[in-house]
Each structure stands twice: as structure tokens, then as C-alpha cells.
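Could someone model FE3-S4 cluster with this protein?
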Amino acid sequence: MLAGEFGGLVQESMKHLVKLGEAYNAERMLEIKYANSGVGFAALVMPDGRNLIEDAVKKGFRLKVPTTLGQDLVDFDNWELMKVPRDFTDNCRWAMGMGMKMGMVPALACAPYEVVGMDWHPLGTSISSVESSVIAYFNSVMGARTNRDFTASFFAAVTGKYPEFGYHLDENRKGTHLFEVEAELRNKTDYSALGYYAGEIVGLDVPVFDGIKAPKMDDLKLLTAATAVGGAVTLCHVVGVTPEARTIEEAFCGDKPADKIKVARSEIEDTYAELSTDAEGGVDFVWLGCPHASIWELQKIARLLDGKKVHKGVTLWITTSPHVKSLAESMGHADAIRHAGGIVISCTCPVLSGGCPGPTYAYNHPEYSIGNFATDSAKSAYYAKPMLRATKVFFGNREKCIEAAITGRWS
Ligand code: F3S
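Reply:
Sure, complex below.
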């Protein structure tokens, strides 16, 4: 591959992976079984102007492993509403088309495991993925092995290889800190607050949660996503729940935790307060669905909005994958949300999408602000100031966010 026998795209991909492996002292290349790539691969143009993707596609090149395209930079149904320029949208469509010709499945979701899967049993399997929330979920809940990758995921998909370092190695998968969860976790936003709290304490390490009883998939989705934002957590364990932590001993591989932290209700409440800039005020924008909402979440949101109307001047967005949106359309939930004045956005989210509020703006443009912002996710609360230029941030559970969308106030 490195010598160029399999073409320019394979050669450049392998060059990158070799450099990555050398930087981390990897001893060998692993065979990977699945990749989740970002759309950034489409920018792979050589200094001499050669477009390696187009060249490879013309020659009928196929990715070496099952590969999904993660979340995109545009909602192909709502790009005009989101004020995304046409040429930007066309570029994203072109990139997706190129990916599909190479065999990529367009999950267009930051929870691709909910809609597509990886065409391989995950436990103990080396994969390569973009996007911190899905990476943390793949590692923690599914027991697959991935580092925090970016374009390396595409190169891994092209070659089927990845250097053996980081979370592919047993020694880096053992727990470091024990969180004894005494607080009752009442909803998925409590899980999000807990994840953020733990992430802030452990940074790059591996938290182990003990005392969490019977979480749902969406609870674990919010927990893992928030650990990756409070710190830069790539892997966590939940004792008796996640596959590498059937017991505390297994989670720590027999080692002693570096620290034991008790989590009472006060720690959860303090995290709500920490991520909120204010306790009350008018609301301009409500965003639910970070990470992308499952059909179960959309169903609950539709029921909460039943017979209600979003307050004049308030924008309510629910972000999800196109596949879940299509299911919600066929079940009538999307209509119910629209009827109430909400909008179901798919493929992307405000943090990723370009465009608003004008042809050259992104959400973080200095002249733009999303206004007073409410969310049920620690991740979007965290990004609200730097990425969406929110004036006030309100972080609370789904019911509270829907109430704010209807009344136009947070209290
Ligand atoms: Fe997904 Fe965007 Fe949140 S990528 S995890 S919805 S910030």
C-alpha cells in the first residue's frame, strides 16, 4: 500500500496512518472491521491539484471495511430554512455521493449505532471513528475499540488498517476513577449532568460508575457524550451494565482506583447550575436532540407538544438522523412536532452546520447570536456560548425545555 501498488488514495492514506503510528510508537497495524468517517475526507486534494477521491471513484475503488458517513454539515431538506448557501449544500451532496460510490453508508447521524450498526459484533473489535460522543459510546457501551479519530477514520476505511495504540490496547482500557453514584438519576439529562461532572474530574482518564441502575440506551448516550465534553473522555465503564465492567474488579482490571468520588444529588444539581448562565429569563431558541434523538425521544417530544403551540418568536429545533426522521414522519410524530411549531432537523446540528444567519455566516460568527438558549444536553449547553454565541444558557430536562418553548420563559 505504501509503495503505491494499489493507487494514490491508498498510498496517501497509508502514509498518514504510518505517521500516526510512528507518533504514538505503535508496534504494528491492526485489521479494523468498521469505520465511521466524517465528511472532511472530501477535501483530500493533493498539492499538485490531483483529487485522489475522484480518481479512485473513477477506477471503481471500494472502501475496505463497512463504513458509515457520520453527521453531515447540512440538512439536505432544510438548508434554505437554515440559510445555508446553495454551493455549500451542493459540495456536501457531492461529497456524500463520492462516499456512497466507494461504499459508504450515509447514516448522517452522531448516533449511527442506533440506525445503521457496524455490520460486525462490536465487543473487543478494533474500529475507527470520528466525533467524540459516538466514540465514547462505541468504546464504553458497545465495547468496540477506537481512538478519537478525525480524517484517520477515512484512511482506515480506505486501507482496512489502523496503528495499534491508545484505546486499542488492553492496558489503556482499565478504569482509573470510581464514581459511587448515590443520587437517583431521574431522566436522561441527569445522566448528562453526571457525565459532565465526571469528565471534568478525570480529564483524559477512564471513569467507572457504580450504582447506576437499569439505564436506557438514550441515558447511556447522554452520559457518554457528556463525559467527552466535561473532559476528553474516550471510554468509561458502568458497573453491571457495560460489557467490560461486569464487576468493579473487572472495570479496574484488579487495580485500585486512583480516586473514589461520591455523587449525591447536590453534585447533579450543581452541574445544572454550572452549565446554566442564569436561573430564569426569556427564551429564544430551544434545541433538543444532542446527540441525535432516537425515535423514542421523538415520540416523547411529540406527545409533550400534543395540543400545544411554540411561543411566538421562539425557535424549537429537534435534531436527529434522516432515518429516524423518516420513521417519525411515517408515525405522525414529525407532523405533530411541526403542527406545534417545532422543526425536525436531520443530518446535522447547529454546532456543525454552516450558514446561519446569512450566506457567509456560521453560527459562531461574531455578529450572530442564537439568543437565550435552552437545552436538555450538557454537550449543547457547553457549546452554546463559544459555538452558538448564546446570550443566556438554560440547562434542564426535556419537560422543562418544552415548557420554555411553549411559554417563551425559563423559570
Ligand atoms: Fe451530535 Fe451536534 Fe450534539 S454532532 S453530539 S448533535 S453537538
